[in-house]
Model the fold of this input.
Amino acid sequence: MTYALAWPLQQAVFQRLGADSGVAALLGDRIYDAPPQESTTEIHLTLGDDEATDWSTGTDQGCEHRLTLLIHAPARGFAEAKQAAAAVCDALLGAELTLTRGHVVCIGFLSAETARAQADRVRQIALRFRVLVEDTV
Done:
């Protein structure tokens, strides 16, 4: 298997999060591939690290992706960040993601880790998901 399904998976995740009303209520359209160039004082989500591992069989081509999505919240407490993290989980878990190539076999929650960053001014939550994708080519 190759890394060929990584981009279709990223597109599908962002499309799903952008279309979800719960995520929109908390993040608006502040879902980014990379952190914004300018400093922002609004809660937002960025794509974190992605690890891909082959899980192909003799007859099927597949890949396990471990995605990290990062919630960044400028508030002093974690309430806003945790609400956004819950909305992201609700939007992704059990969702049917439509890929331009391949299809999602399953998506599951792996872990979440909170952190204080930038001299205790920003709260961050790293959400990790395991997504199994199968190629249809």
Remarks:
- The two ends are 11 Å apart (CA to CA).
- The CA atoms of residues 16 and 97 lie 7 Å apart.
- The chain has a mean pLDDT of 91.
- The beta strands are 31-32, 44-54, 62-73, 103-117, 122-134.
